[in-house]
Each structure stands twice: as C-alpha cells, then as structure tokens.
C-alpha cells in the first residue's frame, strides 16, 4: 500500500495534469503536443517504450532567478511533504530550492547550505547532487566532493551525517573518481530506508580488460533517531552510461536513471526498475565486483527508453537526437494509486550552459 505522502503527491500531480493518463499500449500512435507560447507545460499521452508515457514538460525554471539568485545547475527532485512540493539542490552554489507544481514549476524559497559553525559551503567544498526529505522534514544531501551524505535542517544548517565507506572516497584517499561519486540519493516512502548510488565505478571493481560497468549502491536502514548502513549492492550500468539518480517508489523498490552524453549527438536516457533491494546480496566484502559470481548483482528491468519518446513539441538550444532530452539528473517517483501508473518527474541540470535547458519532464510509468 502506498504511503499517505506518496498517495497525496500522486493525487496532486494527476489533478494538475487534469487526467489519470494510462500507459499507451505497445504500437499505439504517439501524440505530439506543441507547447503554448512561453514556458507553460505541455500535456499529452505519448508512448515511451516499453512501459512509460510522457505526460508533460516545462522549461519554466530555465535561466531564471529567485530573490536575485540564479536558478541553475539543479540536481535532485525530492518530494517535500511540508510544502506539498519538491526540493532540489544547486551543485555550483550549494543551496536548496523549494519548487511548487512540477507541471508549471516555480521556486517558492531558497536556502544556502551551511556548516555547523554557520559558515556557508561553496562549490569547492560541497557539490550537492542528491536530496532526500526525512519524515520529520529535515533533509539529507549528498555531495560528490568527498563524498558525503549530510543532514541539514530546513534552515540549511548542518545537523549531522551518515557514514560512507572509506573505499568510496575520491582517490587517492579511496577508489572513487572525481565527479563520479554519490550522485544519487532517495528515501523510501515509509521513511525506513535511504538509498545512495555511485555515479561511476570504483577503481577496485574494474575488470582485467574492457569497460568497468558495475556501480555500488548503499542501503541505510532506520536505527533509532538516525540511519545505519545496512548493505552494499552491485548494479551493472549499460555500456557508456552513468547513474545520474535513483528514486525509491517503495521499500526495496528503486527506479534508476542512466544517462550518456555524446558530443554532437546528445543524451541517451534510460529508466530501469530494481526490486528486492533490501534483501539483495550484500557485496560489502567483495573486493572486485567484476569477478563476483552470477546472481551477486541486482537485476534491472527497462521501464523506458526516454530518447525514443515523442518530442511533445520540445525544442533545444543544443544538439539532441530527441529535443525533449537534456542532462536529466534529478528524479522523483510517486507511488501509483491502486493499479494505475506511477508518476515520475525528472529535472535536468543545465550546467549553466546556453546550449542546455533546465527542464522538468513528467511521465506515467507502469512499475514492477
């Protein structure tokens, strides 16, 4: 049964969309919907094979400001029950942005992230990539710098941190690549589990030859007033792809967003589902996952090849095979109502570039 919070957000999203859009059957004709002038959202029921539909997109946040602060380089898109909206983080100027209405998004507030002594983090000391809102309203934010998962109050003040294994630290302190660490963070709808994923492989998991595909994920479980590290999982990404986000749509159920960028071509974006996460094999003790026996890694199921979605009338200032695509780095997955589809929101990181867009894309997806 979906949590009250997840159901509330799903109801709100479907009401905003105006319809509870079912997933288009295989072979159905896609419906391209041209967006109205300005940044208003588009609505449609387009098919994204094999199990998702594109409902809407909005570029309302692109190249905007709020209270004099540029709204740019956004990662993460986490449901926030306190505002009945969402929260995202800027990875250049470490701060949270609170957003209302994903179909026509607008910033309602922003808070800079601060150390326990009150001084502000900057882009050199904190590269915010993932956000999870705890049941009490406090926020976990992952940073790629060390990496770290820090706990913040709603005022942006640091209140604590979750443990991160030493192997996950950036080389030479550990085995991680620069800008290849904890890109992804999510909390289960029940609040009992927190999930984090590495964007790139650890050097210790590299095979003797060929591309290293296996990423490690961290699973934390509720323990008293905090969260304890429960297990590590092994996940094989598609060749050339990185993990840009994970989103929990149930306890032990994750959506994984994989993305690849090819200069002059654009982004290839794929969405996978993984179930049984909380009981999957713990790979903490395996030194090199490329040599792990069969059955060690979690099994993933393709939900959507987003690059194959109809364009919905989107345009892009850069090079994209599908102009609806961009550098999607944030994702929220809202549990389905009854047997209906889940609602999935993606947000793109424009990297402060004139050839990229800050875009919110809304999907309906049938999830296992």
Automatic annotation (TrEMBL):
It comes from the Bacteria. It comes from Polymorphospora lycopeni. The keyword Signal applies. InterPro entries: Phytase-like_dom. It holds the Pfam family Phytase-like. The keyword Signal applies. This is Esterase-like activity of phytase family protein. Residues 70-352 form the Phytase-like domain. Keywords: Signal. Residues 1-28 form the signal peptide.
């Amino acid at each position: 049964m979906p949590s009250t919070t997840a159901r509330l957000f799903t109801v709100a999203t479907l009401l905003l969309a105006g319809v509870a859009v079912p997933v288009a059957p295989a072979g159905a004709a896609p419906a391209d919907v041209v967006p109205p002038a300005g940044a208003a959202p588009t609505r449609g029921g387009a098919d994204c094979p094999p199990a998702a539909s594109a409902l809407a997109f909005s570029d309302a946040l692109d190249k905007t400001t709020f209270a004099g602060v540029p709204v740019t380089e956004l990662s993460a898109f986490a449901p926030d029950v306190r505002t009945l909206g969402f929260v995202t983080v800027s990875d250049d100027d470490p701060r949270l942005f609170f957003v209302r209405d994903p179909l026509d998004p607008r910033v309602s507030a922003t808070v800079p992230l601060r150390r326990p002594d009150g001084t502000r983090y900057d882009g050199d000391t904190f590269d915010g990539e993932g956000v999870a809102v705890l049941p009490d309203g406090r926020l976990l934010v992952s940073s790629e710098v060390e990496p770290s998962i820090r706990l913040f109050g709603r005022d942006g003040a640091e209140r604590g941190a979750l443990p991160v294994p030493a192997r996950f630290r950036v080389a030479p302190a550990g085995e991680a690549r620069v800008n290849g660490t904890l890109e992804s963070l999510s909390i289960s709808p029940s609040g009992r589990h927190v999930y984090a994923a590495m964007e790139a492989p650890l050097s210790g998991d590299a095979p003797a030859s060929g591309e290293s595909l296996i990423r490690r994920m961290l699973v934390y479980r509720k323990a008293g007033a905090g969260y304890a590290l429960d297990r590590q999982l092994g996940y094989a990404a598609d060749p050339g792809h990185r993990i840009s986000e994970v989103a929990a749509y149930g306890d032990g159920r994750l959506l994984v967003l994989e993305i690849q960028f090819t200069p002059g071509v654009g982004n290839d974006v794929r969405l996978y589902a993984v179930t049984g996460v909380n009981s999957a094999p713990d790979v903490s003790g395996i030194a090199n996952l490329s040599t792990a026996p069969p059955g060690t890694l979690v099994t993933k199921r393709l939900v959507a090849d987003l690059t194959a979605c109809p364009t919905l009338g989107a345009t892009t200032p850069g090079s994209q095979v599908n102009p609806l695509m961009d550098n999607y780095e944030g994702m929220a997955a809202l549990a389905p109502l009854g047997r209906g589809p889940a609602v999935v929101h993606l947000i793109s990181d424009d990297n402060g570039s004139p050839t990229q867009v800050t875009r919110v894309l809304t999907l309906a997806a049938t999830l296992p």
